[in-house]
Amino acid sequence: MGAHRGCSEHRSVYRQQRETIEIDRHSASSNASRPTNYHNISSSSSNASEKRSAKSLRYPEFDIPYTVMDEKQAYRATPPPTSTRMSRRKHLVLLLVASAYMVYTIWQFATGVSVPAETRFVPQEDAPVQAADKKLVPLEAHIMSKCPDARDCLRDLVLPTMMKSYDKVNFTLSYIGTPTEDDGVACKHGPSECMGNILELCAIHLYPDPKINLGFTMCLTREYSAIPDRSLVEDCALEHAIDIKALNDCATQDDVGFGVGLLRDSVRRSKEAGVTKSCTVRLDEEFYCIRDDGQWKDCPHGAGVNDLVIAIEKLYRTANS
Fold this sequence. Notes:
GO cellular component, one term: extracellular region
Largest sheet: 5 strands, mixed
Pfam families: GILT
Family: Belongs to the GILT family.
CATH superfamily of the largest domain: Glutaredoxin
Number of helices: 11
Distance between the termini: 99 Å
Structural class: alpha+beta
Shape: globular
Number of strands: 7
Oligomer: single chain
Keywords: Glycoprotein, Membrane, Secreted, Signal, Transmembrane, Transmembrane helix
Subcellular location: Secreted
Strand content: 5-15%
């Protein structure tokens, strides 16, 4: 509408100019037909010039200069002011989303939310504080860190049982190997398995609570073929709130002598118990069940989690009756 109104007003000015010229011509012809009065020449000339000057001022002087443009030109020349505000608003929203994502990521690592379910050790209920005179039932698993049967045994039987009976057992994780004459240890799956065993024993040494050390061991065992890959160890340590520097110091202390000593003592314990297969579960110092070649064997009371939980409950009640 502004463009059309500007064009219309521009034509009105043109008509005013034409009317002014016609009036001047008419006045000139009238004066030419009249007799000349030399006495009034100066005044007439003065009056005529004043009239012309006055008439020339009839062209309107606008406070705002006219600019005629079509709608497309106007849109390109003056974009809506809201576009800038919308752009700033979008940048602000993106910044807030990025910040929220960063905070959420840090929170995940700090709280262990990203820990896979099969490696997480969280008792179903808060374990009640045990009285000083309460006796716990011994529960022990004998494993090799790079053994697939150990993975199945911990994942399918030991870890679920601990989640239900954590407050009633005294849990021990022991390792299987062969002591050597030079006070060393030979491992079935090679030196990498010995180092994996040492790392898991160091976690037990630094963090005696099974909620921490058993979760860490299960995390490593889930990818047993990669043990002792540094990235795997660091990831599992982070997931279970284990100080990776302290873990490394334990494993390398005294030129690995300290870690080898932990492994040697654990291997001797398994040997004295007569354990030769990974994974062997013992309850109350007795063989309970064996996982070997992908199968459960020698499980007279059953290989299910509920079977083991019931057996623990019976022993616990008997020991504390």
